Amino acid sequence: MTATAQVADPQAHPLAPWVTLPWLQRLRAVTAYHTGAERIRDVSGPVALIKLGPRRITPVAAMVTSPQGARDVLAGTDAAIDKEMIVHVESRLHGDNVFNMAHEQWLPRRRALQPLFTKQHVATFSGHMAGAAEELAASWASGRQVDLDQDCRTLTLRVIGRSIFGLELGERAGQLGPHITRILLYPSRRALRPVRVPAALPTPARWRFRKSMAVIHQVVEEALTAFRADPSRDAPLVRRLVQTTDPATGQPLTDKAIRDELITFLVAGHDTTATTLTYALWALGHHTQMQDRVAAEASALGPRMLTVDDVPHLSYTVQVIHEALRLCPPAAAIGRLAMTDIVVDGFRIPAGTNLIVGTYALHRDPALWDDPQRFDPDRFAAHRSKGRNRWQYLPFGAGPRSCIGDHFAMLEATLGLATLVRAVEICSIDDEFPLALPFTMTAGGPIPATVHHRA
Ligand code: HEM
């Protein structure tokens, strides 16, 4: 076991303050944890304890909204702060996977999967990424209205399907979308309730969840069956999982373990990036000059398909993606459980506390960002980023459990945005970007825009 970031003696620090809002407002702040974290920070400061019921039924939560607090929670490399929070426990209804496993079980799985997601390796997927974006742009009829959210989901499902599953999934986006949302929503709603009925109780919601899980199981089963039938198939994630051994048994992973892992990548690997692209396109659809800069940067590379080697020439496009991730971080909050007493930004947090790092609140904190509500990609220009605290901007999390797909997502979003904006001019229709929290933060409804092909 390696060293932890926690070196301070918790007993030498004061207990974090309790949030004093009325019960209903506390509940609302925890369930709407994007804006709720801002409210708690404004009322009770950057580290605050929230009680929603008797401790043996509803564990205390701590909302953490300072860079130092985020560092104290996320940087540890041992199991003192682990993924045993109620959200992780409930998400095991999907099966055990690299996202929700506790430290001991997680470490070998992460090591096994990491090589697929290095910057060098994800570069091999760039043809799928740019190709799928070209297909989407070509499918848009000039002058027509489109739903950016639906179309970006189709795009990212297509990319993840072709890149790591060896499946064509884009055409099935409309059919799979509601099932994916439902399998995310059910455990996360359960986790956010102050009191839960036993998971095995046959409620209508449970029945619908199981029905949707069956649909998603069919997709991952298809990927596994196809790979077993033809092991030369281009399905790198399936191949890697089939070749991985379980450190507990020394045996290959069971088919169930492989399917459970594939489900996480299917879900985590597409709706996050879809939301990022949707938000970036919607924002550019309101800011013509910024959109023209992205179009000019991409057009300067010529009409051919963009590749990974073009990324160094797409620096403004990358800034736009960073700004989209700042204002609309798909992981609006990051959860952990304090397994022992710990210190967070100078305060003692007792063992057993659910820790919530409020990414959305950090990204919009007026004490950390100039004019934080403004969409301003230039804030990520090199000269303006200099000296910024690394822990105030956490779209992909941080520390050992940061996103394994960060390079994949950034490459996909960069090539996707540049390809789409080079091909079409986007004009957003709605002034507001509605947000929903099925688990990650997504668009809360269609995002209409009109598209016009550029000359
Ligand atoms: C813009 C897109 C994305 C965003 C904003 C995002 C964000 C995040 C964040 C914040 C975490 C850390 C969660 C925590 O600490 O509890 C995470 C973990 C994870 N992400 Fe992503 N993600 C994105 C895309 C992807 C993609 C494309 C994949 C797969 C291809 C992926 C797979 C995962 C997995 C498997 C984990 C769990 C890692 C672990 O615990 O070892 N994500 N993601």
Structural overview:
It is a single chain. With 455 residues, the protein is α+β, with helices and mostly antiparallel strands. It has helices at 23-31, 35-44, 67-74, 86-91, 103-113, 119-122, 126-139, 148-165, 173-192, 204-229, 236-243, 255-268, 271-284, 288-299, 315-327, 359-363, 382-385, 406-423, and strands at 47-50, 61-64, 81-82, 144-147, 334-338, 342-344, 347-349, 354-357, 424-428, 435-436, 442-443, 448-453. The mean pLDDT is 94. It has a single domain (10-453), classed as Orthogonal Bundle (Cytochrome p450). The strands form 4 sheets. A 5-stranded mixed sheet has the order 1-2-8-5-3, sandwiched between helices. Strands 4-12-9 form a 3-stranded antiparallel sheet. A two-stranded antiparallel ribbon has the order 6-7.
User: What's the CATH class label?
Assistant: Mainly Alpha
CATH fold call: Cytochrome p450
N-to-C SSE string, H for helix and E for strand:
HHEEHEHHHHEHHHHHHHHEEEEHHHEEEE
**Could you tell me which ligands this complex binds, including any ions or cofactors?**
protoporphyrin IX containing FE
Major beta sheet, strand line-up = 1-2-8-5-3
Could you give the distance between the termini? 59 Å
Q: What's the CATH architecture?
A: Orthogonal Bundle
Largest sheet features: 5 strands, mixed
